[in-house]
Amino acid sequence: MAPGPTEQLATLLPMLTQIVGHIRPDQFDLPTPCSNFTVREVIDHMIGGAEAFAPAFRGITSTHQNIDTGAHPSARFRAAMADLLDAVQSPGAMTRTVEAPFGTVSGEVFARFVAFDGLIHGWDMATSTGQAYDPPADIVGQVAAFAHQALVPEMRDGETFADATTAPQGSGELAQLVAFSGRTVHQGSAA
User: What parts of the chain have a pLDDT lower than 50?
Assistant: First the structure.
């Protein structure tokens, strides 16, 4: 059976935590393939999203505040991802109605977007910091199938997603998904 959004996140979030834990302090200001975001800004974005979205999956109002992550954000990132996973796995999370940044959707649909976002931002951080990144093929396939169905033209506003690019010939499914998200994929990158 194909992994659902809860299983996808249960696999991806620890992988992302590991990537963040291996980022050296001198790498935080490096640019990423995510337009206008440094490595630290991708991390801050992911922490902020997790802290805002976990309450939504639990059906409570978020009191999210954008707090500085300090010198090395790995502990806060790990805590935010663990709380997000706990929230996604909480009773009723997949059937609950969630106010997402792009509209009202079911918890299941929103969890699939979170998996898509996490998968791509993991690639951003790994690529920028020279780390290996090899998420399971079945998860990449499921996320790609969802993304190709759910990413509507209105989301390609240059902020949420840029226009799709073309991955180098012979690229795997992750590289193709990254290119579909609007990033430029170079031969030999983390994908």
Answer: none
pLDDT at 67: 53
pLDDT digits (tens, 9 = 90+) for 20-63: 999 999 999 999 998 889 999 999 999 999 999 999 999 987 66
CATH no. for residue 152? 1.20.120.450
Q: What residues form DSSP beta bridges with 38?
A: 31
Task: Give me the number of domains the chain comprises.
Answer: 1
Does 191 reside within a domain? no
Among the residues of 22-166, which ranges form H helices?
Answer: 39-58, 74-88, 107-129, 137-150
From 119, 59, 125, select the one nearest 88 (Cα to Cα): 59
pLDDT of residue 7: 94
Ramachandran angles phi, psi of 100, nearest 5°: -90, 165
Close Cβ partners of 53 (under 8 Å, ≥ 6 residues apart): 62, 84, 87, 98, 110, 114
Nearest CA among 25, 69, 30 for reference residue 50: 69
* Structural domain boundaries enclosing 23: 5-180
